[in-house]
Design brief:
Elements: H1 3-10, E1 18-23, H2 33-44, E2 52-56, H3 63-68, E3 73-79, E4 89-91, H4 109-118, E5 123-129, H5 142-152
Parallel strand pairs: 1-2, 1-3, 3-5
Antiparallel strand pairs: 4-5
């Protein structure tokens, strides 16, 4: 997937009604990918700042901030084991989220999605970034950085 393909998905929803949520842990190597993805959105100025949220490892702590924006769509971005080469970015079907190892965070992403849906969010999507390593104290891998940069170019 690349930014042009993402624009196709977004074309059906007004731009101001989409919130991007980056997940990740800065000290666990490629687990930082969702946060870096948000950094790239900011650097390229593709999405208004208020629609970009870094939730780190606790998305449940940011639910009120997400809901306050009254989005129609929320897109979560995180590392995911998809059995693809490191740095691969692809949309993950909602029904396979809990089985894909999409998130290493405390709460189930399904539970979070259900809460958002109950509070007016009509569509929830997931972008996964295949990690190379999520070992503690490793930097984000060149493969994942390249995958994210390629997404925007």
């Amino acid at each position: 997937m690349n930014f042009e393909e993402l624009k196709q998905i977004l074309s059906l929803t007004p731009k101001q009604k989409v919130v991007f949520v980056g997940l990740g842990n800065r000290i666990r190597g490629d687990d930082e990918a969702g946060l870096e993805f948000i950094n790239q959105f900011r650097q390229h100025k593709l999405i208004p700042e208020q629609q970009l949220i870094k939730c780190y490892t606790t998305p449940e702590n940011y639910l009120s901030k997400i809901i306050k924006q009254k989005p129609d769509m929320v897109i979560f971005i995180d590392t995911a084991r998809m059995q693809t080469p490191p740095g691969t970015i692809q949309e993950i079907p909602v029904e396979s989220i809990d089985s894909k190892g999409f998130s290493t965070h405390t709460y189930s992403m399904k539970l979070i999605a259900d809460y958002l849906a109950a509070n007016g969010v009509h569509e929830i999507r997931y972008l996964g970034i295949e990690p190379k390593s999520t070992a503690i104290s490793n930097p984000i891998s060149p493969e994942v950085i390249q995958g994210i940069q390629s997404f925007f170019n």
